[in-house]
Amino acid sequence: MSDRRNIPKPTARRLSLYLRELSTRLEQREVTVSSKALGKSLGLTDAQVRKDLALLGQFGHPGRGYAVADLVSSLRRIMGRDRDWRVCVVGAGNIGRALVAYDRFRREGFNIVAVFDAEATMVGREVGGLRVRPMADLAKVVAAEEITLGIVAVPRDAAQQVADALVAAGVEGILNFAPRRIEVREGIGIVSVDFTVALEQLAFQVAGGSIEDSDGGDEDENGDGDAPTSNV
Amino acid sequence: MSDRRNIPKPTARRLSLYLRELSTRLEQREVTVSSKALGKSLGLTDAQVRKDLALLGQFGHPGRGYAVADLVSSLRRIMGRDRDWRVCVVGAGNIGRALVAYDRFRREGFNIVAVFDAEATMVGREVGGLRVRPMADLAKVVAAEEITLGIVAVPRDAAQQVADALVAAGVEGILNFAPRRIEVREGIGIVSVDFTVALEQLAFQVAGGSIEDSDGGDEDENGDGDAPTSNV
DNA sequence: CTCTGTGAAAACATTCACAGCG
DNA sequence: CGCTGTGAATGTTTTCACAGAG
Prior knowledge:
In chain A, 40% of the residues lie in helices and 16% in strands. With 232 residues, chain A is an alpha/beta fold. At the A-B interface, helix 1, helix 5, strand 8, strand 9 and helix 9 of A face helix 1, helix 5, strand 8, strand 9 and helix 9 of B.
């Protein structure tokens, strides 16, 4: 039951993985799971799993393990997944189009309801069932469609400007795919994904580097880096 | 000069960000940069930047800062970016096609030289200048084209199998976009990126969570999670 | 005076190990 | 027994703060 404000950053990243794994197990009708089994699927120790899950409240049943269904609904609530999100994508280039067409988002409750592009030649085209709209419509559409999350899939040099426009339009969080740091004001969520950084982390490993953990999302402030991600 | 084996995981993630930022500054003809200025661009403290860069050897010039060009070439070497990489993409769906068409990879020295797909209807089609090949050709092409990195952009349930095939074919590292953990044997690099996890970390922030840092890549073993990434 | 490099301290995160529930 | 929840121990990362170089 504990609120989410006290959750350590590394744990928050792992919670997504627990949810992903547990959802799969729920679909397979598994009723309970032990910290050891869960940890094994995710490459974590059983102690780590217990410590993490203990933050959500008392769930485990000694001798039995955790009730999968209960854990899933608890995790969904904590992660803000107990409701649907309305999302827009800015940038109808390769990445933007792939994201709009990415079925999994919709299935997971992230509904992409609008796509924008600055190019006049792109505006009006159909992408994944949506008509591409001009940037001029951004504020109007974000308000009308009650969009709360924006995805930035534009070139690096336009990214900050687009992010500013999204925040001005009223979105509460931004998922950034442009290869640069985006600054947002206090209270706005920000997570970045940089494909080149991800490939570079891989090159680093292959070329002799170590690296062990994964990556995660970031809050505005501390403004850390872009984590491509890790294993799992 | 120090070798890369002793670099802490969080630092390795940040090195990519330093390189990204410094490359931009180099293009803009900046000659030196202070740890404070670099940190500001990246949302890090100056002390953090100095500690990180000190791992690469002695670069700073007291009173002056760091020589941008020297740092860039040193970082490139450490990250394994001082050579070109030959890469293949498995899965010619939305994500696979977007990655093949993603120009930045080529500009950064990651050359996608082959695309594979299991669907007969997809094989033979042209994607970003490449002809889609059948999975049966995987081993042959990986060897002939001297491919060292593989990108997995297939549905979840095929991902592990595809990863196994890539490793068997001889790749040394895998960038995984499927929403599940991939296991690879010791010595093979693995980094995962999960869009849904990234959006979920954002939802978590917006719904009230904290999270401060970014993500990163992961090594096989410790098998941690998938970090979507953070800011910057 | 500016700015690095770095020990020492503080903060944070993970692992251990065990008491106790069912 | 099997398995959780959790203090205590350990390990890791970040921050501090300052000596010394240019």
